[in-house]
Amino acid sequence: MTLPHGLTPGTWTLDGSHSEIGFTVRHAGISKVRGRFGEATGTVEVGHSLAETKATAVVKTASFDSGDANRDAHVKGPDFFDVEEFPEMTFTATSIAADGEEFDVTGDLTIKGVTRQVTIETEFNGVAVDPFGATRAGISGETTISRKDFGLTWNAVLEAGGVLVSDKVVISLDLAFVAQQAEQAEQA
């Protein structure tokens, strides 16, 4: 499996200020709540092929933000993420399969100490050199997980039936990575 056009071997690090790790979950069966995690680190070690490429990410659970302080405090507490006990969630890619400019990135996602294999459907958005000389690559992706699979089981039954928070959570990624400067200089 060859590399996407413009992506070169080497270390690429997540640019957190130009990336977003978001989520969507259905609330009360009638609306969706969206939010994001504001602190994350990640590295892609691009090999000479996709089979040789490795990716890891660490997300700080305390950086959870849904725009509502009360909800955020509840989600950061023991009913959900328990950020005191589990300050990070992690992802480690185990395989990358290509289909044109789209890729299935399969790996181990760990939330609240529970690890499950997930597949993130991603799209490679290209490579560009910014005005400051940094080489950047963009990737977007999405996966759907079950909260229950990760021990996030808190819920409340609604008077009309159903539950307050859906089990299904959609995780969406818009990521920017920057090639390491030393490797950029070697390529020049």
Automatic annotation (TrEMBL):
Q: Which InterPro entries match?
A: Lipid/polyisoprenoid-bd_YceI, TTHA0802/YceI-like_sf
Which Pfam family would be a valid example here? YceI
Task: Give the top-rank taxon of the lineage listed in the UniProt record for this protein.
Answer: Bacteria
Q: Where is the Lipid/polyisoprenoid-binding YceI-like domain?
A: 11-178
Gene3D superfamilies noted in UniProt? Lipid/polyisoprenoid-binding, YceI-like (2.40.128.110)
What residue intervals traverse the membrane? none
Q: Would you identify the family this protein belongs to, as annotated?
A: Belongs to the UPF0312 family.
PANTHER family, sorted: PROTEIN YCEI (PTHR34406:SF1)
> What name does the UniProt record give this protein?
YceI family protein
